[in-house]
Specification:
Length: 143
């Protein structure tokens, strides 16, 4: 079982897409361990996007991700990292296949609806950046 950090970006929250995007991952059989609507601080944004520091679009990326609320989530499942990235589609909306989240909803490289971890190491760092350990709860048996 693998954990991944998925984040619905400010464009997705503003477009009222939280429900339908969460639904896709529930339908896929992933388990939701934690979720919150929050606004990334500048520090959290810099930690989250540390690998992009210095790139031409970095300033734009930080401005956008801190511009409004995001919906941060931790999901668990078999190969959750690779599987969720397949479900998200490519970063460039021109290359994102129809049926993927970005293929269906994104029109811009920056305003591209969702972020997903690209490795177990990134997932661990990104989760720790946005959640306290006590905020992650495995779902119990059905009531
Ligand atoms: P994300 O998965 O959040 O990780 C890095 C982000 O950088 C990526 O999604 C895009 O939103 C953003 N990004 C990548 N390339 C560009 C670009 N050329 N212009 C603007 N943003 C970009």
């Amino acid at each position: 079982m693998e954990k991944t950090f998925l984040m619905l970006k400010p464009d997705a929250v503003q477009r009222k897409m939280i429900g339908r995007l969460v639904q896709r991952f529930e339908d896929k059989g992933f388990e939701l361990l934690g979720a919150k609507l929050t606004r990334m601080t500048m520090k959290q944004a810099e930690i989250h996007y540390a690998e992009h520091a210095g790139k031409p679009f970095y300033g734009e990326l930080i401005d956008f991700i801190t511009s409004g609320p995001v919906f941060a989530m931790v999901w668990q499942g078999e190969q959750a990292i690779a599987m969720s990235r397949t479900m998200m589609g490519k970063t460039n909306p021109l290359e994102a296949a129809p049926g993927t989240i970005r293929g269906d909803y994104a029109t811009d490289k920056g305003l591209n609806v969702i972020h997903g971890s690209d490795s177990p190491e990134s997932a661990e760092r990104e989760i720790a950046n946005m959640f306290e350990p006590g905020e992650l709860l495995p779902s119990g048996p059905p009531i």
